[in-house]
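Q: what sequence does this backbone want?
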């Protein structure tokens, strides 16, 4: 994956050099590459092998993720100076260039998807990624809701428009944020892998359901690690959620309950793969490793 990302990005020597260096810094500065790995593993689980056709969506997912991190670190957002153990993009290249680097990565992601064949596959992949990255049910919406909720006192209120039991509004808002801010792109990684592999509608539904669970579990773990891990372990500033008054699972439910919820979601996600055979083993192992991560 590192080699593919290196090749699709503009050269650091290509004009305008500051922009392309900022883009490369945001993508090639390390990272778990979890979203492309999930995409490839889902394609293998659905089709028996991950195929060349899953590479383009895998790369596009990571470019969208990298753009989101560059923008998330900006002073107007989470205002962080450290990412993956290195200075954030705007610290090195300035705020304007960091904004443009994120914009450039987002455009490049969809350019890469447009090269998928047949054209109907490119269209389906583009629709899935744009919905997961945008609004009202994607990452951008989640980021906006997260900023809106920051430091606010969310009062208890009934959920009048649904059949759900009456819950504190803070809990409803918390799940809405997490399923969009982080969960949507992780869910899309599994679905896009299935689409690239030609999975049937039943398999795609399973992958979507599984992705929803691991996406929420992943963000709950992020909330816990922000409290429990060090800056050195995380590669970014620890303790920022509490300092900024973020709405988090351990903050609303307590650390023990949050941990149990993440574990329950991970177990439920893995049950989806029962009966999928050996081809799903890499995906199963990847989800299991996500449940045990320490950064």
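A:
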């Amino acid at each position: 994956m590192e080699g593919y990302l290196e090749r699709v990005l503009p050269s650091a020597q290509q004009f305008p050099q500051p922009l392309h260096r900022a883009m490369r810094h945001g993508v090639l500065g390390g990272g778990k590459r979890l979203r492309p790995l999930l995409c490839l593993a889902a394609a293998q689980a659905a089709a028996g092998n991950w195929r060349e056709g899953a590479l383009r969506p895998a790369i596009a997912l990571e470019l969208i993720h990298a753009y989101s991190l560059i923008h998330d670190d900006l002073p107007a957002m989470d205002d962080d100076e450290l990412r993956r153990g290195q200075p954030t993009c705007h610290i090195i290249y300035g705020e304007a260039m960091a904004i443009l680097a994120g914009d450039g990565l987002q455009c490049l992601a969809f350019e890469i998807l447009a090269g998928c064949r047949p054209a109907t596959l490119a269209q389906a992949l583009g629709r899935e990624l744009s919905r997961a990255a945008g609004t009202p049910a994607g990452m951008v919406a989640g980021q906006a809701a997260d900023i809106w909720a920051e430091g606010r006192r969310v009062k208890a209120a009934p959920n009048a428009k649904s059949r759900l039991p009456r819950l504190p509004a803070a809990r409803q808002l918390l799940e809405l944020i997490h399923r969009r801010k982080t969960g949507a792109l992780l869910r899309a990684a599994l679905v896009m892998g299935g689409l690239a592999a030609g999975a049937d509608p039943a398999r795609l539904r399973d992958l979507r359901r599984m992705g929803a669970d691991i996406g929420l579990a992943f963000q709950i773990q992020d909330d816990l690690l922000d409290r429990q891990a060090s800056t050195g372990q995380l590669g970014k500033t620890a303790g920022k959620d509490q300092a900024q008054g973020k709405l988090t699972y351990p903050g609303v439910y307590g650390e023990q309950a949050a941990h149990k919820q993440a574990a329950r979601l991970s177990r439920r996600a893995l049950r989806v793969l029962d009966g999928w055979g050996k081809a799903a083993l890499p995906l199963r192992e990847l989800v299991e490793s996500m449940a045990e991560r320490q950064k």
